[in-house]
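Q: A reviewer asked whether we had any structural model of the full assembly, not just the individual parts. We don't, so I'm hoping you can provide one. Inputs are below.
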Amino acid sequence: QTVVTQEPSLSVSPGGTVTLTCGLPSGSVSSSNQPSWYQQTPGRAPRTLICGTNTRCSGVPDRFSGSILENKAALTITGAQADDDSHYYCLLFMGSGGWVFGGGTKLTVL
Amino acid sequence: EVQLVESGGGLVQAGGSLRLSCAASGFTFNNYWMSWVRQAPGKGLEWVGSIKQDGSVKNYVDSVKGRFTMSRDNAMRSLYLQMNGLRAEDTAVYFCAKWTLSNNWYWIDFWGQGTLVTVSS
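A: Here is a predicted structure for the entire assembly that you could use as a starting point for your response.
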């Protein structure tokens, strides 16, 4: 099964900027992988942040942005807030109808 | 308002079977791909499988192929997951998820709250 890599943990100060990445050890992430990003707090269902072509989903604050950066998918939070302390997962299309989530990043805002 | 409500989870012995259901409302169910996504205790998200709008195409993660079967009843606006040959490693919260497509890009836009499946060994 394909592995999708994310930083296991990151930290950011309130008001700071942080970039989470999503990569493939065996190659580059491109738009053909259709990367999307999800936020999840413990005990709750995931919330979709980035939908298609690096677009924020409905209701998502504009401090969240998605991109493909240096062969990885990236989620940038600009002006982090305490509410952003959470787990973040990327999802990639791997062809033949298969999708793979990254292992997730635990972001701490402190 | 889109709603996805899962049911059918519970405790089952290893080797047993369970059928999960997901009742959908608030959108035209037969227009969208649907999926099951699971999360083992303390672990990350894992895509389990997806089913096309008319049920004609189904894709699964390798670890469940031959044991799990997805189906849907568009008239009943329901998604199902038949799980056979359950193993301890199938213990997880199972989420029902709706996909959407725009500009040739797919993503999951709505999630259910999940149902817990516990497999005892």
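A: Points you may want to mention in the reply: The radius of gyration of chain A is 13 Å. The mean pLDDT of chain A is 94.
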